[in-house]
Amino acid sequence: MNVNVPKRELTGTFVAKLAGYLRALRNLGAAQSRIDGSRPLLTAAEFQEELAVLGLSGRRFEPEDYSDALGEYLNISITVHVIPDSWYPELSRLLAISGRLGELRYSEQFNMAAIFVPGSLPPLVLTLAILHELGHLAAGDLLIEPDEQADEDTRDSEETTFETLPLKKGKKLARGCPFARESLREREANLRASYALFAGCLGDDNPHAYDMYDVL
What we know:
Layout: E1 2-4, H1 8-28, E2 38-39, H2 44-54, H3 63-74, E3 77-83, H4 89-98, E4 103-107, E5 112-118, H5 123-139, E6 162-163, H6 182-202
Parallel strand pairs: 1-3, 3-5
Antiparallel strand pairs: 2-6, 4-5
Helix pairs in contact: 1-4, 3-5, 5-6
């Protein structure tokens, strides 16, 4: 993962268009053309299976290691841009309005993904924000094609499985398909971020690292 401060001419275009992107994201939501089964939310043990595929299970690793391994597996280039608030204070404001800590843009044509996060985030929050966006890439959330507004009924506290969608293109790390509802995709991205943070810190002390089937 390449973390850098982008040139003004590059990020200026991004920031200028971010407001439009965020408005579009609100409208797109989790709407999809058809439902493809159901599954529960990802568990810590299942996340270790994903780490095993990347060669990181039972190892201590940094977010950069996870990003590099994920990019190699997906055959895409992943770059993280930490943008100083002194340059573009409107970025933090727009993300705050949208309820997001970062923004992920993906280009299938160029096999590239870019993560944009404001530099004012505290170190731990910055790490979790980056891992959250990487979680969307791992899940294949950007590979679905929404076409209408989905029902975001939040009365799911007692549910164990949730509707998912098939992928129309591309490659993902996760075994299961992305959730049909945007709120669940965001929730699982948060889970992946926390799992990755703790797995990277614990290494072979993680109780889930060896308690799983061989998935390779």
